[in-house]
Amino acid sequence: MDATRRPIVVVLHGAERPPRMTTIEQNATVRYTTSHHLAEALPGADVLLVWDLRSTALAQVWPAANGLRWVHAAAAGVGHLAIPELINSEVALTNARGIFDEPVAEYVLTVMLAFAKDLPTTMRLQQRRTWMKRETERLAGSSALIIGTGPIGRAIGRKLRAVGVAVSGAGQAARESDPDFDSVVALTDLRAALPKHDHVIVALPLSPATTGLIDAHALRAMRPTARLVTIGRRGLIVTADLLDALDSGTIAGAAIEVFADEPLSPSSPLWDMPNVLISPHMSGDVKGWRDELVRLFADNLDRYIREEPLLNVVDKRLYRR
Amino acid sequence: MDATRRPIVVVLHGAERPPRMTTIEQNATVRYTTSHHLAEALPGADVLLVWDLRSTALAQVWPAANGLRWVHAAAAGVGHLAIPELINSEVALTNARGIFDEPVAEYVLTVMLAFAKDLPTTMRLQQRRTWMKRETERLAGSSALIIGTGPIGRAIGRKLRAVGVAVSGAGQAARESDPDFDSVVALTDLRAALPKHDHVIVALPLSPATTGLIDAHALRAMRPTARLVTIGRRGLIVTADLLDALDSGTIAGAAIEVFADEPLSPSSPLWDMPNVLISPHMSGDVKGWRDELVRLFADNLDRYIREEPLLNVVDKRLYRR
Question: Going from the N-terminus, what domains does chain B have, and what CATH number goes with each?
Answer without folding.
Answer: 8-98+287-319 (3.40.50.720), 101-278 (3.40.50.720)
